[in-house]
Design brief:
Elements (H helix, E strand, L loop, with lengths): L3 E4 L2 E4 L7 E2 L1 H9 L12 H5 L6 H10 L2 H6 L1 H14 L5 H21 L5 H8 L2 H20 L4 H15 L11 H6 L3 H9 L1 H19 L9 H7 L4 H30 L2 H9 L4 H6 L7 H13 L4 H4 L3 E2 L42 E2 L1 H12 L6 H19 L1 H7 L5 E2 L22 E2 H15 L7 H21 L7 H17 L1 H5 L4 H22 L3 H13 L1 H15 L6 H10 L1 H20 L7 H9 L21 H4 L1 H18 L7 H8 L4
Antiparallel strand pairs: 1-2, 2-3, 4-5, 6-7
Helix pairs in contact: 3-6, 5-6, 6-9, 8-9, 8-11, 9-12, 11-12, 11-14, 12-14, 12-17, 14-17, 14-19, 17-20, 19-22, 20-23, 22-23, 22-24, 23-26, 24-26, 24-27, 24-28, 26-27, 26-29, 27-31, 28-29
InterPro entries: ARM-type_fold, ARMD3-like, ARMH3_C
Organism: Loxia leucoptera
Keywords: Membrane, Transmembrane, Transmembrane helix
């Protein structure tokens, strides 16, 4: 007997002795694509259709192949199919429900492909018809809500979420997707929360639920009242918030693990042998090739939670075992095709703190630590646009955290010490720090380390000015909290001071190139004012009196940089050019730094001359500093401990619109409805009576 092959909805004998035979479902689709009502000749047409295995490829392809005029001719049949799909969602037979969900996905995607250039209104009309849209969409949303909240099949819930993601991302700009008006009116917010609060549902569907919520929150968020924003901002259920935090932590952990695996693989490969042979001259270039695709969708979800919900701040510090060290024996090995790393939900189980015992030998972690590690990876290379967006979003999230009183309380808590292993860019002039040598410190030290690392490693031709400004603002906000609450943080402040001085040096060395693109005086002023903050209030938050002495030592030691900066800004502030005003602000801000330099330098020179010493040691300079404080006069500068609070709508709206557009396209591209094969579904439902 000749083998039967199946292709594009056709069944044919391999001998090709007969005409190809079409699958019954394909024949039924063809009937829908005529101008006649398919149920005229067969009253059971719609009943039979939803018992047939869906051919997604054929249905989508058929819709895409029609031109606008042809599509309008069969609009009534398309509307009828859409309405019968919604009716089938209420059926008791699960196979009908599955086929209806998959058919809806194909319909929405197919009609969208055909109507890319048209508005959402046309898509609604084509799918359901204006006259019935409100009732049909209400029924659809209620059915999806019921399926998501029911005790039933996890496969059905997964398909419901995929259908909703398909619905949300049907247009690149989700705010132009008029279909979402019905998702706003008929909210599924509670269903999403229910998924996140249940350990079983969260493991299976948490990732899709969190991404869906992040996208819904961004629908017309600046133009109208979005109910998802309102509801997310007032969630106070601990289990739900922790569930959301665990889903985000797992996705970020998965990214960190993938990066670490690639890094280890990279180091033991060809480049490792090459760099060992010729030295470390190629190390930076080699390392740039380590690339794991960033996950902006999950980062957006974290941002919305931190920005909108003050109760979520507590979740950042919720301790759980290090996720990378925990594996679940029950997790199935995924058999789906390999997709770009970081774009799909993690395959391993999302754990909850109640589900795993805390082991004394296992490093405890929390969402903030996982996020800081993630940030340290994506902020390494900002040349790639996606990483630049990710790096910016990481800094925006840290800005929100640095402004929050409660977040600052646990960041600076001496009783909450962690060992945070941030990823550091390999550089020729420094050795890679051994993980085991890292001390346990309050979490704010890791935030400051991350900021210092960014400052040190991004002084380059394509200068990321915006990221530097955000970075300095985060440091400033943390210092404001320390000054206000008199927190004496034991931190290696010298590393920060050195990084800031080198940044000023870089700005001056590249003045001409940078001024062609940026107002470098804004950044220079912020850096100088950080030093002014230490000079004016350092005695209230630096850990010891000797730390304050070391500050003066660094300013005096690096005085040439401050002198050069003063010469530069003085030159530009006395000229009648465009930089006159911003440069003069830096001139005024340097008054106390210059007073320190002009006061102590003659004293140091005098001490050296009297004691016949050509070059003073650090201890000798510090001795001069300590004995001459009483004759130093400084000016009191106002507003050093004040800052403008973060505001998304006024300053970041354009960034978030572009980011959400990018996420929408990516989610739609990676949305695979065939991940649930019909065979698996049939097997699952064959046991259901």
């Amino acid at each position: 007997m000749a083998q039967t092959e199946k292709k594009g909805g056709l069944l044919r004998k391999s001998s090709a002795s007969k005409k190809p035979l079409k699958e019954k479902v394909v024949l039924m689709y063809d009937e829908i694509f005529t101008t006649e009502d398919p149920s005229k000749c067969n009253p059971r047409f719609w009943e039979e259709l939803f018992l047939m295995k869906v051919n997604l490829e054929y249905l989508e392809g058929k819709l895409e192949a029609l031109d606008g005029e042809e599509l309008m001719k069969i609009k009534d049949n398309i509307n009828c199919l859409f309405q019968h799909c919604i009716q089938a969602l209420g059926e008791e037979h699960p196979i009908r429900v599955v086929n209806a969900l998959q058919t809806l996905c194909a319909l929405i995607r197919g009609v969208h492909q055909k109507n890319k250039s048209t508005s959402g209104f046309d898509i609604i009309n084509m799918l359901v018809g204006f006259d019935k849209a409100e009732l049909c969409m209400k029924n659809l949303m209620e059915s999806l809500d019921s399926l998501l909240c029911a005790e039933g099949s996890e496969s059905l819930k997964s398909l419901c979420l995929k259908l909703l993601l398909c619905l949300v991302t049907v247009t690149d700009n989700i705010s132009q997707n008029t279909i979402l008006e019905y998702v706003m009116i008929n909210s599924i917010f509670e269903a999403i929360l229910q998924i996140l609060s249940s350990p079983l549902s969260r493991r299976e569907h948490g990732y899709d639920a969190v991404v869906l919520l992040a996208l819904l929150v961004n629908y017309r968020k600046y133009e109208s009242v979005n109910p998802y924003i309102v509801k997310l901002s007032i969630v106070d259920d601990e289990a739900t918030l922790n569930g959301m935090g665990l889903v985000i932590a797992q996705a970020l952990s998965e990214y960190n693990r993938q990066y670490k695996d690639k890094e280890e693989e990279h180091q033991t490969g060809f480049f490792s042998a090459l760099t060992n042979m010729v030295g470390s001259m190629f190390i930076a270039d080699a390392d740039e090739k380590i690339s794991v695709q960033t996950n902006e969708a999950i980062l957006l979800a974290l941002y919305e939670a931190v920005h909108l919900n003050r109760n979520f701040i507590t979740v950042l510090a919720q301790s759980h075992p290090e996720m990378g060290l925990m594996t679940s024996s029950t997790s199935p090995v995924p058999t789906t095709p390999v997709t770009p790393l970081g774009t799909t939900p993690p395959s391993s189980d999302v754990i909850s703190s109640a589900e795993l015992p805390l082991d004394a030998d296992v490093q405890t972690s929390n969402l903030l630590i996982t996020f800081l590690k993630y940030s340290s990876i994506v902020m390494q290379d900002t040349k790639d646009e996606h990483r630049l967006h990710s790096g910016k979003l990481c800094l925006i999230i840290l800005t929100c955290i640095a402004e929050d009183q409660y977040a600052n309380a646990f960041l600076h808590d001496d009783n909450m010490n962690f060992r945070v292993n941030l990823h550091r860019v390999p550089m020729r002039h420094r050795k890679k720090a051994a993980d085991k040598n890292l001390p346990c410190r309050p979490l704010v030290c890791a935030v400051l380390d991350l900021m210092v690392e960014f400052i040190v490693t991004h002084m380059m031709k394509e200068f990321p000015m915006d990221l530097y400004v955000r970075c300095i603002q985060i440091v400033h906000k943390l210092l404001c909290y320390q000054k206000k609450c008199r927190v004496r943080l034991h931190y290696t402040w010298r590393e920060l001071w050195s990084a800031l001085i080198n940044l000023l040096k870089f700005l001056m060395s590249n003045e001409t190139v940078l001024l062609a693109k940026h107002n470098i005086f804004t950044l220079a002023l912020m850096v100088v004012n950080l030093f002014n903050m230490f000079i004016t209030y350092g005695d209230t938050f630096l850990p010891t009196p000797s730390s304050y002495d070391e500050l003066y030592y660094e300013i005096i030691r690096m005085h040439q940089n401050f002198d050069n900066l003063y010469s530069m800004v003085l030159r530009l502030s006395t000229n009648a050019g465009q930089w006159k005003e911003p440069a003069s602000k830096v001139t005024h801000a340097l008054v106390n730094i210059r007073a320190i330099i002009n006061h102590f330098n003659p004293k140091i020179e005098s001490y050296a001359a009297v004691n016949h010493i050509s070059q003073l040691s650090e201890d000798q300079v510090l001795e001069v500093v300590r004995s001459n404080y009483d004759t130093l006069t400084l000016k009191l500068q106002d507003g050093l401990d004040q800052y403008e609070r973060y505001s998304e709508q006024h300053k970041e709206a354009a960034f978030f619109k572009e980011l959400v557009r990018s996420i929408s396209i990516n989610v739609r591209k990676n949305l695979a409805f065939n991940t649930l094969s019909q065979e698996l579904l049939l097997k699952e439902f064959s046991t259901i009576s």
